[in-house]
């Protein structure tokens, strides 16, 4: 849900995934939004199929087409930001309903159009309404789903839209030719009304909307002006001619608007309030480039494929079939992104060079009589797979990081970049509004330019080495296909191709081996420092989780341990100040001291004092006067302790939580200074605090990496509410629920997380084994199994 700036209410709103808070209703809302957003690709396909019939019946000319495209695209870009901002202020569901009503009106105007200009008016209304529908659905996703689930959600959402594109491209021409274009527009009107009713019935209104002003209104106005002028300039340039003074004035105005927006500093940024900026510029740049490449490639294929089909002797149906392969490949890559954690740089490094390779193969096959339609289909599917493999992770990462205060206007960047990419492709002379299908020579130019655009995008978004290697292999394949160089030349090209591929495979293998060695080292370090926590220890049933923020190291500044000693079951959990190797060294010292002294020190207060002195000595040895560690020590089943009693010493750590079937309660434990201040044991003996748990209660202790995990707006993870929503069960259930909840909540884990949940059992305690020598000469308990969860 959209945040209001207050962390409590905003966190509760964002944590509520649907009106009733159930995952089932969330899935229904997500599927419905995907179906509604699919109108964004279905409606243009229906229009493209109806264009020849409309031209014949209403006598549309070049002027009508120019006005419809230029005005429609400019107003659509303007509407993206207006509708997004209106959703932030007035409610996203209300804006979506109004937009669907506008779409129904526009389709009805098209159905009853009586001349060229009335049809143009209907097209403009439809373009504006579709923009508002799409940005409303897109901005709905971060309000319904948590940032950690955005990759899976966007993967499925874009796959559904790709399937809608495939169906529309193949069925729309047949429907228009069979029933007539007016009936097709009536069907679109009915679809828009049906979507309106479904949204009104099943989609909830987010309970919280923003009242924050725009961070910088002049800057926002300049960006909107650029968004309106840029597509108009790009589409009018090939019509008027690039030398026309009017084009120069429009180009100058749009450039000035962009320069002013770029130079003007935002007045109310998150960084200016003393907090780090929540939306790095790299995220915006990555989403912008991916959207531009997607829009550009779509237009290139839509214009070149009819010429390719005509060269094969095929008709519009053949061209539509081949074009639909773009959606097939896109759906496959989006499903791959949904089920596999593909990083944006990985998707761009692999996907965009593959798409460029597909354009090269399509260029090589243009005009070849023996090149089958199924071959064209496979190549276009490769292009769609590559483009969406790059775009989907970029879009998911961008949406996951969006601040909730200006969600709609920020989300408009994604469809806006696609529209700009479309307009940029239409700036080429052979794709302008007044031209029909390009001749084969012009289609070759289109494919060549498209290849260059994708290559540049790959260099900007992906790994340079991978992009260059794939580009070289694409060039070699093109030479092998197009040039008649004889058998000797073919062998040379084949060897060169194999050498390039072999070098790439060798480099990839070396990188994989290095990664395997690093992972093994991290695992060894983790198991050497952090011993496993057993499920049952003494008369405690335990469940634990350790998740380091830096997965490569396997361990961070948090620590956790549980031992069964002659004095009872003793547990230590805490957090060292600082990060990196120094924090790991302090953790090692603390755990070694605890494992040794827990078996030798009868009083829990004296054990805490010895840990305090250990940190103080470490600080003096390293010359770090600010070294300290927060810690929570617990003891169960000690002398004169009842089954449900726990002795607790809290050294500056977070308060533990008691979880019962009735709710969650903070345990009132006196808080002492952290370890390393040298205050423990310096005066009167330290008496632990006694906590008596309720029947069937579970005590949960954690580090601040859990409670201070932030979402994209900067709100903390609502730990108490997460435990309340958890199905009451065993400690394992609670830990699993917290682990899944924090991963869904945040798009970036910035701190280590340690959790331990414990519940007293009525079974008698087993005999205490003799201590064995462990790390740094410390005494350790028996071998055990603990879950560790590297990111």
Automatic annotation (TrEMBL):
Coarse class of the protein's main subcellular location: membrane
Membrane topology qualifier: Multi-pass membrane protein
Keyword annotations: Hydrolase, Membrane, Transmembrane, Transmembrane helix
Subcellular location: Cell membrane
Region span, Disordered: 767-791
Location of the Major facilitator superfamily (MFS) profile domain: 29-474
InterPro entries linked: Bact_Sigma-Reg, MFS, MFS_dom, MFS_trans_sf, PPM-type-like_dom_sf, PPM-type_phosphatase-like_dom
Positions of transmembrane segments: 28-46, 66-83, 95-114, 120-141, 153-173, 179-199, 220-241, 247-265, 285-306, 318-337, 349-368, 374-392, 452-476, 488-507
Protein's UniProt name: MFS transporter
Provenance organism: Streptomyces endophyticus
């Amino acid at each position: 849900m959209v945040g209001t700036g207050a962390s409590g209410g905003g966190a509760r709103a964002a944590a509520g995934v649907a009106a009733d808070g159930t995952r089932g209703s969330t899935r229904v809302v997500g599927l419905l939004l995907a179906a509604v957003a699919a109108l964004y690709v279905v409606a243009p396909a229906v229009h493209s199929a109806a264009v020849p019939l409309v031209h014949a019946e209403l006598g549309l000319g070049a002027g009508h087409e120019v006005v419809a495209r230029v005005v429609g695209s400019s107003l659509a870009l303007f509407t993206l930001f207006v509708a997004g901002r209106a959703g932030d202020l007035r409610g996203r569901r209300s804006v979506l309903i109004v937009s669907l009503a506008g779409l129904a009106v526009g389709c009805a105007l098209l159905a009853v159009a009586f001349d060229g200009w009335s049809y143009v008016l209907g097209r403009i209304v439809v373009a504006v309404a579709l923009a508002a529908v799409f940005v409303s659905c897109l901005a709905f996703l971060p309000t319904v789903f948590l940032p950690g689930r955005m990759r899976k959600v966007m993967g499925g959402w874009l796959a559904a839209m790709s399937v809608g594109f495939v169906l529309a491209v193949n069925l729309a021409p047949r429907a228009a030719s069979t029933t007539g274009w007016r009936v097709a527009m009536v069907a679109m009107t009915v679809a828009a009304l049906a979507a309106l009713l479904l949204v009104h019935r099943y989609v909830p209104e987010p309970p919280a909307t923003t009242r924050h002003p725009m961070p910088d209104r002049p800057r926002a106005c300049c960006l909107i002006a650029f968004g309106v002028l840029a597509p108009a300039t790009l589409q009018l340039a090939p019509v008027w001619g690039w030398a026309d003074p009017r084009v120069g004035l429009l180009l100058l105005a749009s450039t000035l608007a962009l320069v002013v927006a770029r130079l003007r500093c935002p007045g109310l940024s998150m960084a200016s309030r003393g907090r780090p900026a929540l939306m790095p510029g790299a995220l915006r740049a990555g989403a912008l480039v991916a959207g531009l490449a997607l829009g550009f490639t779509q237009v290139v294929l839509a214009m070149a494929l009819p010429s390719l089909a005509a060269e094969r002797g095929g008709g519009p149906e053949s061209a539509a079939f081949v074009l639909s392969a773009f959606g097939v490949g896109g759906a496959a890559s989006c499903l791959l992104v949904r089920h596999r954690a593909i990083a944006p740089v990985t998707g761009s490094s692999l996907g965009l060079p593959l798409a460029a390779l597909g354009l090269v193969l399509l260029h090589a096959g243009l005009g070849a009589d023996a090149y089958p339609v199924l071959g064209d289909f496979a190549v276009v599917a490769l292009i769609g797979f590559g483009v969406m493999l790059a775009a989907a992770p970029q879009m998911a990462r961008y949406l996951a990081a969006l601040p909730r205060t200006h969600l709609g206007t920020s989300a408009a960047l994604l469809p806006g970049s696609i529209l700009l990419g479309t307009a940029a492709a239409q700036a080429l002379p052979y794709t302008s509004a007044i031209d029909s299908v390009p001749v084969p020579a012009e289609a070759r130019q289109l494919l060549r330019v498209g290849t260059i655009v994708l290559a540049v995008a790959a260099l900007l978004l992906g790994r340079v080495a991978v992009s260059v290697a794939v580009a070289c292999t694409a060039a070699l394949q093109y030479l092998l296909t197009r040039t008649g160089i004889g058998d000797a030349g073919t062998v040379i090209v084949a060897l060169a191709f194999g050498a390039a591929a072999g070098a790439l495979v060798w480099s990839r293998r070396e990188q994989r081996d290095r990664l395997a060695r690093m992972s093994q080292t991290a695992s060894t370090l983790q198991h050497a420092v952090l011993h496993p926590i057993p499920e049952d220890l003494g008369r405690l049933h335990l469940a634990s989780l350790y998740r380091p923020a830096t997965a490569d190291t396997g361990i961070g500044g948090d620590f956790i341990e549980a031992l069964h000693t002659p004095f009872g079951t003793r547990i230590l959990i805490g957090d060292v100040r600082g990060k990196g190797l120094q924090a790991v060294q302090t953790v090692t010292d603390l755990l070694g001291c605890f494992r040794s002294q827990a078996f030798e020190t009868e009083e829990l207060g004296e054990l805490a004092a010895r840990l305090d002195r250990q940190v103080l000595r470490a600080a003096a040895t390293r010359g770090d006067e600010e070294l300290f560690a927060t810690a929570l020590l617990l003891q169960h089943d000690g002398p004169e302790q009842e089954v449900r009693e726990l002795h607790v010493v809290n050294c500056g750590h977070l308060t533990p939580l008691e979880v019962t079937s009735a709710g969650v309660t903070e345990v009132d434990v006196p808080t002492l200074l952290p370890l390393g201040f040298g205050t423990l044991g310096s005066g009167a003996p330290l008496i632990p605090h006694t906590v008596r748990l309720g029947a069937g209660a579970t005590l949960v202790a954690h580090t601040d990496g859990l409670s201070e995990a932030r979402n994209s707006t900067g709100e903390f993870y609502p730990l108490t509410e997460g435990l309340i929503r958890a199905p009451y069960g065993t400690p394992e259930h609670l830990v699993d629920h917290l682990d899944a909840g924090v991963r869904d909540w945040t798009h970036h884990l910035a701190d280590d997380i340690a959790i331990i949940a414990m519940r007293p059992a009525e079974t008698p305690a087993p005999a205490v084994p003799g201590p064995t020598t462990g790390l740094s000469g410390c005494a350790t308990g028996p071998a055990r199994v603990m879950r560790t969860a590297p990111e």
